[in-house]
Design goal:
alpha+beta; 3-stranded antiparallel β-sheet; two-stranded antiparallel sheet; 3 helices
């Protein structure tokens, strides 16, 4: 694999919960997401956002992998479906992430499989989840 190029971008998120409202999440770059909490409410709940981060990272990483393999011109659509299994016991957590990548384009099965494997190795989100990062909460 070629050398990893690190691009810098301001990252992070701020969630604000007003009395009687639902969380609104913003990014330093101006992105905004309204968060839902109802079981049948349309939109993203916090767990959906976790799955969405992994799905988005995987499809972007698949494109990077295809570029590195020299097959980007043959790559058409890449779709990632991500879900998971929650723990049956406490604390509440996801114990397994299920990722399905569908890759279309003029590529053989071996190349598609290599893209999947390389994408998982490239993806910052999958690498972070696998590494059990430290969490540190403070009172502001």
């Amino acid at each position: 694999m070629s050398e990893l190029k690190v691009r810098t971008r301001v990252t992070g998120a701020t969630a604000v919960l007003q009395p009687g409202g639902l969380p609104v999440v913003t990014t330093p770059t101006g992105g905004t997401v309204d968060v839902v909490t109802g079981v049948s409410a349309p939109g993203f709940n916090p767990l959906d956002l976790l799955y969405a981060s992994l799905a988005a990272c995987m499809v972007i990483s698949a494109r990077i992998a295809a570029n590195r393999l020299g097959v980007a011109a043959q790559l058409a659509e890449v779709r990632a479906e991500v879900g998971g299994e929650k723990a049956a016991d406490e604390p509440s957590r996801v114990v397994r992430f299920n990722i399905r990548l569908d890759i279309s384009g003029d590529l053989d099965a071996a190349t598609k499989q290599r893209i999947v494997e390389d994408a998982e190795a490239i993806c910052t989100v999958s690498n972070t989840l696998r590494a059990t990062p430290e969490l540190h909460a403070t009172l502001g």
